Amino acid sequence: MSSNYFQFDVDKIRADFPVLDQMINGNPLVYLDNAATSQKPQSVIDSLVNYYSTENANVHRGVHTLSQRATDDYEEARAKIRRFINAEKDEEIIFVRGTTEGINLISQTFGRSCISEGDEIIISSMEHHSNIVPWQILCQEKGAKLRVVPVNDIGELLLDEYERLFTANTKLVSIVHQSNALGTINPAKEIVDIAHGHGVPVLLDGAQAIAHLGVDVRDLGCDFYAFSGHKLYGPTGIGVLYGKGSLLEEMPPYQAGGEMIRSVTFEETLYNTLPNKFEAGTPNIAGAIGLGAAIDYIGTIGMDEILVYESELLQYGTDRLSGIEGLKIIGTADKKGSVISFIMEGVHPHDIGTILDAEGIAIRTGHHCAQPLMDRFGVPATARASLAFYNTKEEIDVLVRGIDRVIEVFS
Amino acid sequence: MSNLNDLYQEILLEHNSKPRNFRKLDPYSHTADGYNPLCGDQISLYLQITGGVITDVGFQGKGCAISRASASLMTQSIKGQNLEDADNVFDQFRKMLTEPDAVLDYDQLGDLETLAGVAEFPSRIKCAILAWHTMKAAIEDNVEDVTTE
What we know:
The complex is a heterodimer of chains A (411) and B (149).
Chain A: H1 3-7, H2 10-15, E1 23-24, E2 27-28, E3 30-31, H3 42-55, H4 65-84, E4 93-96, H5 99-114, E5 120-124, H6 133-142, E6 145-149, H7 159-164, E7 170-176, H8 188-197, E8 202-205, H9 209-212, H10 217-220, E9 224-228, E10 239-243, H11 245-250, E11 261-264, E12 269-271, H12 285-301, H13 303-322, E13 327-330, E14 339-344, H14 349-358, E15 361-362, E16 364-366, H15 371-376, E17 382-386, H16 393-410
Parallel strand pairs in A: 3-15, 5-6, 5-7, 7-8, 8-9
Antiparallel strand pairs in A: 1-2, 4-10, 9-10, 11-12, 13-14, 14-17, 16-17
Helix pairs in contact in A: 3-12, 4-12, 5-6, 13-16, 14-16
Chain B: H1 2-7, H2 10-17, E1 30-36, E2 41-50, E3 53-62, H3 65-78, H4 83-98, H5 106-109, H6 125-139, E4 146-147
Parallel strand pairs in B: 1-4
Antiparallel strand pairs in B: 1-2, 2-3
């Protein structure tokens, strides 16, 4: 056990998350569904209340004081995110609704302008539906082809196979950084290097990774990186698409409307500069400010400390669950984020979820929006416990007792 | 928890582990597939309808204990019934799960009453009702697959 673990004051951290302090079905809530969405610290909740209570106004529009305050805070949130992921410039940070919209933005803009008949897009077998379906639609529209990197039996991408998929027609790679269903952390840097060796840009789906790994987009070298605020302890409805400035400049706009224009006549419209070109309409101002507050909060704990603590929890949970007869963990990659996906002999995951809920334990059950991956492992669904830095070993013990109860009911 | 015991009653667990009529009919006159996209339940239902009577019924598929036991109990319930009666049982069953104040005909429901506890678990009602929607679709010969969404 590392010394960091002892310095990590989880009780103090838990007190920052008001939702955790409640009873569910007569038992203390044990929230283990963080890969679906994370809980919000009081400071994020306060930032939303404060914004709407004291400075609500539209951004980039008015000359009045409130509008200026709202604009300053909205743009300050952008700068916080730029620093958090180590992007070069603020304008490389595009506010979107979430990872899904970030990926759709790329398929609608870069995809539509750069992909044509016979071209190929590489994704992987462990993608979330949101990193499959936008490309399928684009491929159908353009007559392009989707190529899929396979995974091995423990849930790791086969990099040799990946490299073999490149042809002269490969135009884009879009791969998940950390699998939502298995927890596998993919070797993003290697994935990017291989693609760049073939002159192909890379989009990373960072929905899960952003909250659990220190993400440095310049170190990764990726061309695009998409993530959601709500999995990073921020509000729902706000997310980020990072793009390299040079690529974003060349891309056509996404949605059309206010904010994204420089001048409009009925004959011609000149588009605004980055990042506004991609932010048509009034944005989710409060959401962006709330996400900024979430990043401030994470800064008070430290991403490295979070990673160490969550790794300890994952190890503990994996050891405890592995010891249960008839339980099998799906996804045992060497490099894993704090996700334990499992199945139990003779019990459907949905029944596991209901019985655990009766004990106050929240987990996710189902196919995790990754049906092709479930097919790969020959299971219709899994039960998934996903951990955050406010979870404890004691909560994992409660989970194990809950699983004992499942076994009891079905014995 | 008592609710949980109401849900996972012995008869239900028994139908889950040993589902009745768990086979593909050959021949069959009507069939449909049903899906519950939320949890991945999938059922294929086969009916032999002769002269307005369900003379035989079988199902196959994967799913949770609730969906599997419900399908199994349904096949027992509708086998030998005419279409109108089967429809009435479905109506009673749906009311049992979704209308807490409904006056029910427990004679008609028979063993289906085992599933009454599902009403306390709103997220699981879809699991229990999937087989019945699939039956309706098969009878109406819907070309589209059924989902509970």
